[in-house]
What we know:
This protein is α/β, with parallel strands linked by helices. The chain contains 7 helices and 11 strands. The strands form 3 sheets. Strands 1, 4, 5, 6, 7 and 11 form a 6-stranded parallel β-sheet that branches. The protein is globular, with a radius of gyration of 17 Å. The chain binds zinc ion. Zinc ion binds next to loops.
Amino acid sequence: LPLHPLQNIPVLAYHKISSEKEFGITTVSPQRFSQQMGWLHQNGYRTITFKQLETDQVLPEKPVILTFDDAFSCVYHEAFPVMTKYGFTGVLFVVTDFIGNYALWEPLKVQQKYRHLNERELHELQNNGFEIASHSCGHPFIVDLSEAELSDELRRSAQDLKAQFKSDIHSFCFPYGRYNRRVVDAALDAGYRYLTGNVSFTNTFPEIIARRSVYQTDSMRSFRKKLRVPVKRMSGGMVMEKMIQTGGLASIYTRKLQNI
Ligand SMILES: [Zn+2]
């Protein structure tokens, strides 16, 4: 199966950077995050964004792309100060109907107390080289949507971001990392050029950029392994990631059952 042309650039996915324990496994502590950034810099890695691939700018010798799903306010308060120290940037996957708002799209009350980056914070990050990208309007389980709803999530999110941040929106991250042929085609149709989600064992699409998620449980050793490219879709670490991602989906199904 052909891999994405970006296969030789490691892409990492972060969610929350926080010292709060109840955040769960997708949270990385600020200390650990700082250690990871320091290691990257010391080992010659330099960050780029998807957007930078659209220019004729010469790429660094060891590029890495750091992505932040959901664009929570902790990216500004915890990650940004550390990244600035090393001249690093990242890609912010914004849930556009929740800019500056609490994560009310989350199924669990305990997760709803976290705030998304507001417009001022997003602007400041953008001014410092971060890419503004779409993670849909309302973070739905996108493969379940009708054609009209799907089109709205893909197109309106990009239009809103373009209007607010005066920048073309090239990149999209599928909510919950889930996608199928229909939604991948719709996203390409909507004009996105960089699509990302979870790397799946069963549904592997050449259009999807392979990313590795960084978790609370990662040691420096497992972190370093996540920088290996191209991503081998069946490694031990991948099985672990898949289990965590499936656990996340359990809460969506719970909500669906409650709604019946
Ligand atoms: Zn998300």
